[in-house]
């Protein structure tokens, strides 16, 4: 099983605990974790964390309002903000790092995305494309499930959590917990993204095992 877990910058305080919990579950050989993986019928599980931008990307946005970067410069500076968040998560946890998606190790690792994206340059250089769509592109390349861990339970409409929604229904709408480019990317590639509150690591674990959990599934394949 392969999974991409995008950890949003909004979780900067809680993210190290989440990362270490993922490592505890998917790297360790403690009896309970081993039994859960065995029950899942997959002892070979690779979890690749994609860092968000958070305060680092916000700094780029603030600087852009003052200095008016070109689209290319803004794109690459913002991706370097993702690298800064990756360094933070690595510093605050025991996660191993990679800058490639060609040979993802078993267990949990974190992607330092700049060199990969600079080489492949697969996405438009626009503020509509953030780490959400980058994570979706990585998941597409890896043929992996996609999970977004953020600081809210999912997508709400009229105060109610939407448990499942088509990506086409989100195109052009203003949903604060995803970037505008994500729904059309999911639809084009017939992918699914599950949004879950990363403040509750056990929800993330359960979602990775494919069990029902509080959150929103965005369906690009319906």
CATH class categorisation:
Alpha Beta
Secondary-structure element sequence? EHHEHHEEHHEEEEHHEHE
* Gyration radius, rounded: 17 Å
Largest sheet: 8 strands, mixed
Mean pLDDT: 93
Helix content: 40-55%
Give the DSSP E fraction (strand runs of 2 or more residues). Answer: 15-25%
Give the tally of β-strands: 10
Can you give a write-up of this model?
The chain is an alpha/beta fold and 222 residues long. 43% of the residues lie in helices and 20% in strands. The strands form 2 sheets. Strands 3-4-2-1-5-9-10-8 form an 8-stranded mixed beta sheet, with helices on both faces. The chain has a two-stranded antiparallel ribbon with strand order 6-7. Helix 1 (15-26) crosses helix 9 (201-208) and helix 3 (54-67) packs antiparallel against helix 4.
Short description:
This protein is an alpha/beta fold and 222 residues long. Helices cover 43% and strands 20% of the residues. It has an 8-stranded mixed β-sheet with strand order 3-4-2-1-5-9-10-8, with helices on both faces.
